[in-house]
Amino acid sequence: MEDKLVIRGIEFKSRLWVGTGKYKNLEETKKAIEASGTDVVTVAVRRVNILNRDSENLLDYIDPKRYKILPNTAGCYTVEEALRYARLAREAGVSDMIKLEVIGDEKTLFPDTEGLVQATRILAGEGFIVFPYTNDDPIVARKLEDAGAAAVMPLGAPIGSGLGIRNPYNIRIILETVKIPVIVDAGVGTASDATVAMELGCDAVLINTGIAGAKDPITMAEAMKHAVIAGRLAFRAGRIPKKLYATASSPIEGMI
Amino acid sequence: MKIKVNGDIIETTSTTVSSLLEELGIKAERVAVEVNTIIVKKSEYSRFNLNEGDTVEIVNFVGGGQNDGR
What we know:
The complex is a heterodimer of chains A (256) and B (70).
Chain A: E1 5-7, E2 10-12, E3 16-19, H1 26-36, E4 40-47, H2 58-61, E5 68-71, H3 79-91, E6 97-100, H4 113-125, E7 129-134, H5 138-147, E8 153-154, H6 168-177, E9 183-185, H7 191-199, E10 204-207, H8 209-212, H9 217-237
Chain B: E1 2-5, E2 8-11, H1 17-24, E3 32-35, E4 38-40, E5 55-63
Parallel strand pairs in B: 1-5
Antiparallel strand pairs in B: 1-2, 3-4, 3-5
């Protein structure tokens, strides 16, 4: 059976989305992304180094023809900043997609959800395909959907924390609350965390630090690929109910 | 004339965005340009004039996933 993820007419072959930050170098970035099997990578928008023009360009390693480039507004703490970065990202000319971050606090990197809803509404109105990074709050998810988000990206846990899916029940409620895709963004520390997110019924998982920060990022990228596939298959297969006592799986009949 | 590019004041003879990019050795297709906080469309690079004291930002894509700070 076909099980494709399609968002606003864009077909995503992989349900694992990968960030490109924190790798040792661009060669490692490239290898990890290849090992992950992903077809969508997030990138940040930053100043070109005008003094040292020898610095390598990310897009020399990550071919925009092969990968869907999802620019983000990482580092933005106000609606105005996020809008500025989103518009620059679009003008840089790879796509109308934007992973929208409006950060509320430096220590937790939790989103400023009020600003996020505002920025989502404005950018959706300008024709952007908006993927807001949000809290695991079903009410905010609904507001983002109403504001025109293409999907919602609730955190599993704080960015870079590796704490996994801290509130699976809220993620489930978000899945029941919105009709747009739900993509867990942030918090995934190891393969089982990604599987948990997918078993809950999430449409995809975005991982950066969980891969880039591993001792061997390339092997972890491959682990995450299998974890996401396994979790998705288990979700579609439908797990057995949890029970307190045993249920024999061998027949009683025919015993001597 | 002097203009500010990505936070640094530089001396330039370029009078348009496209000549500035050329002077700096930057390929236009992979960047976005702001002049005095106004985004300049790529199609306008060759006729968008630069003036003394302008503030220019030239950005591109770098590695990043979730919030990586500034």
